[in-house]
């Protein structure tokens, strides 16, 4: 009553043993593919972790640098500016990790929160009544009177260019893991599991436990079994090319590190622009929001402090070098995996599964 290992000679197999063999080949095939995938998956997961760590390091550096700007040059508003600064960098981090937000909304929200502080602490430092309504009016007015000139829009443009590639790379790496995980659990068809039993276990039914399949026979069976997986070849090659493009974009003129480290300078230029145009801004705000209560003897609004660059260059250089090296190592490895899905049958037939350098092997029917 054998269904797979039918042979003219007497046999020591039963139908139940054939069923056990089918379960065994399914388990073994999954384990073999997992073993092949392990190194590739390990590299991608490792790069995701390294990329996120280096990115978080750069982000902390840029945030500290921006916070230091307020503490050294704009002390009257430093304490209140801490929250908007923190929110800006949290939004940037979430954007790169794939959240449904935009760089533009994050930057403009930051400048909306900044304007009431700049107006009441630097342009008109005598203001004592900063009610919720007045603050909200200042936030809304910011969009119309554009107190920060072209600096806020420039910041959106620079960050959007550099953060886009980082966001895409982060999503692409996650997609790679998803693809690999899916191929590990690709179900074997009934025909495939029968062909694998015939190749690997039918010799056992004749007592030939040391005979292994012929190489050509193994390749035919594996290619048939993995036809659906090997169809990923063209898409996988495109995927590797896309990763290469994204890493080149990140390392090109729209460099993530340069854009992040330049945030403090954009913010400084924006605040200086607002201070220099203080009288015109005050006149417009008075018309729109009314005149707030002020202390006697209004303080001068000309207390513009030129800011010196915060010196944390060493940290930045290290994080920058780390990210660049990780990118180069990673893309070099991934390029070598271009043929991963095209050669999966060959790799599974390599090693102990088949008989090499021997005069006898199993061809599915007999020993040849």
TrEMBL record:
It is found in: Cell membrane. Keywords: Cell membrane, Glycoprotein, GPI-anchor, Heparan sulfate, Lipoprotein, Membrane, Proteoglycan, Signal. It is a lipid-anchor; GPI-anchor. One of its GO terms (cellular component) is cell surface. Cell surface proteoglycan. PANTHER family: GLYPICAN (PTHR10822), GLYPICAN-5 (PTHR10822:SF19). Belongs to the glypican family. This is GPC5 protein. The lineage of its organism: Eukaryota, Metazoa, Chordata, Craniata, Vertebrata. The gene is Gpc5_0.
């Amino acid at each position: 009553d054998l269904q797979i290992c039918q042979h003219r000679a007497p046999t020591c197999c039963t139908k139940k043993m054939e069923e056990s063999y089918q379960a065994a080949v399914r388990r073994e095939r999954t384990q073999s593919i997992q073993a092949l995938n392990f190194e590739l998956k390990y590299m991608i997961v490792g790069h995701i972790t390294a990329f996120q760590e280096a990115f978080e390091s750069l982000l902390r550096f840029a945030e500290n640098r921006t916070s230091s700007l307020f503490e050294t040059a704009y002390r009257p508003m430093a304490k209140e500016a801490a929250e908007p600064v923190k929110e800006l960098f949290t939004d940037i981090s979430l954007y790169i990790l794939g959240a449904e937000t935009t760089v533009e909304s994050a930057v403009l929200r930051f400048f909306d929160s900044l304007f009431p502080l700049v107006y009441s602490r630097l342009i008109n430092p005598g203001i004592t009544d900063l009610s919720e309504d007045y603050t909200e009016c200042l936030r809304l007015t910011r969009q119309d009177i554009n107190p920060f000139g072209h600096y806020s829009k420039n910041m959106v443009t620079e960050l959007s260019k550099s953060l886009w590639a980082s966001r895409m790379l982060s999503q692409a790496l996650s997609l790679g893991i998803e693809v690999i995980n899916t191929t590990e659990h690709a179900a074997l068809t009934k025909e495939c599991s029968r062909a694998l039993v015939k190749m690997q276990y039918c010799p056992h039914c004749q007592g030939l436990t040391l005979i292994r399949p012929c190489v050509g026979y193994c390749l035919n069976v594996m290619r048939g079994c993995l036809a659906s997986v090997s169809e990923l070849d063209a898409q996988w090659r495109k995927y590797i090319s896309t990763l290469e493009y994204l890493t080149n974009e990140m390392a090109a003129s729209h460099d993530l590190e340069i854009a992040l480290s330049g945030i403090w300078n954009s913010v400084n230029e924006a605040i200086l622009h607002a201070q220099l145009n203080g009288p015109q801004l005050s006149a417009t705000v008075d018309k729109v929001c009314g005149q707030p209560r002020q202390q006697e003897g209004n303080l001068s609004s000309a207390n513009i402090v030129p800011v010196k660059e915060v010196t944390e260059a060493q940290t930045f250089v290290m994080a920058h070098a780390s990210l660049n090296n990780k990118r180069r190592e990673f893309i070099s490895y991934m390029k070598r995996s271009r043929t991963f899905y095209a050669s999966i049958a060959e790799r599974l037939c390599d090693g102990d599964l088949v008989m090499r350098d021997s005069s006898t092997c199993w061809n599915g029917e007999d020993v040849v």
